[in-house]
Amino acid sequence: MAPATGLGMGFGEPEAYDRRARATGALIRPRVAVAAACMVLGLGLTGGAVTGSWLTGEPGKSGAAGGFATAGAMWHSVPVDQLFPPTVDGHGAGPGGAARTWTRVAVAPDSGCAGAFDPLLRKALAPVGCARLLRATYTDATRSYVTTVGLLFTKADAPAMTALAARFENEGLARRTDFVPRPYAAKGTVAAAFGDKQRASWTVSVLTEAPVVVYAVSGWADGRAAGPPEPAADATRSGATTAAAQAGLGNEAQGLADRIGRGLRQTVKSATEEPS
Q1: Which of 15, 31, 182, 245 could form a disulfide with 240 if both were Cys (CB 3.0 to 4.6 A apart)?
Q2: Is residue 238 helix, strand or coil?
């Protein structure tokens, strides 16, 4: 029997290539739907498969509070193609406003945070906890660059996320080269050689409207060592002359993180809007 790769059934070797979501093809009767919904709560993201339907905010909560609660449950209730689209349009995201298109090459099985962050970044994130970590790696249209995007779903409430965001801002933690997230390299893909030494640029954003930390880290697809990584905020400045800046790797990281984060916010908004 082949090793199980579905979440809740143990992790096998991560799948190297994406698979698109499968259509259900039929309506589910009410009793079956209830049973299926219960089962979905124990499952996470599996490749490109749809893992469940919406979980709304807690009863009696609405607005910002309901949205915060809803966002915290999204790691096991939203299709992976909605969180990490197979293709992401980066209109205006490249150097000088050039267009970018990113294609997803791998989705990591959802997991905890062990091994995903360098020690100091892991320590800084510890106060908000790690409920689940979702990651996907993309490449650009030329397959010259690779970028891992991560969504860290925390265990924190709104005040704790606000405090963490303030600390990152006040202490400049998002710009420290010892606070760089680690990439997800999938065997058999263009990102197979994307390791710690290949990290060229990165960005980390602590959301305050959701218990989520959004990050991205980029590098060259050919496996070359990048030297000291440069924060995307510096690599995207006009006149920057570093290798990462000249290659547009800051734009790769910032552009993907912005769009994945924007998609998450829109998903939260859609889930908490009152039906007309």
Answers
A1: 245
A2: coil
